[in-house]
Design a protein that fits this description.
Blueprint lengths: L1 E6 L5 E7 L4 E5 L10 H7 L4 E5 L16 H14 L5 E6 L1 H12 L4 E7 L3
Parallel strand pairs: 3-4, 3-5, 5-6
Antiparallel strand pairs: 1-2, 2-4
């Protein structure tokens, strides 16, 4: 498993874990967690997918968003992350608040989402 970073706008950094090859599968965690929370899923799905588990803003090693950030700010951040990696349409899985973010991505930019799984959405 590789630990990587992606430069985003405004000098922000997105940290993520990556393993496997094939169609991209992006895993988005909930509040208070980090990319590593998906270790079992990364191991399982990386046999068939290029799994990317991202630290959301202010979690793990990713830069924070501005104070008072709203849900749409997290959605926009996720869209920028997906776009920066030049992945085209991806498979998304979100847990808890990550489900809200994944849903927001699919509504805002349906061209970026091939499939989506919502786990314990809030």
């Amino acid at each position: 498993m590789m630990s990587k970073t992606q430069q985003l706008s405004n000098n922000r950094i997105a940290h993520y874990l990556e393993q496997g090859t094939g169609e991209p599968l992006i895993l988005i965690h909930g509040v208070g967690m980090q990319a590593a929370a998906w270790y079992p899923q990364i191991e399982f799905f990386s046999k068939h997918y290029r799994v990317i588990s991202v630290d959301m803003p202010g979690h793990g090693q990713s830069s924070k968003l501005a104070e008072g950030a709203k849900l749409q700010d997290f959605v926009d951040w996720a869209i920028e992350f997906i776009t920066a990696l030049n992945l085209g349409a991806v498979n998304l899985a979100g847990h808890s608040m990550g489900s809200l973010i994944s849903t927001g991505v699919s509504v805002t930019r349906p061209d970026l989402v091939k499939r989506m799984a919502v786990l314990n959405g809030v």
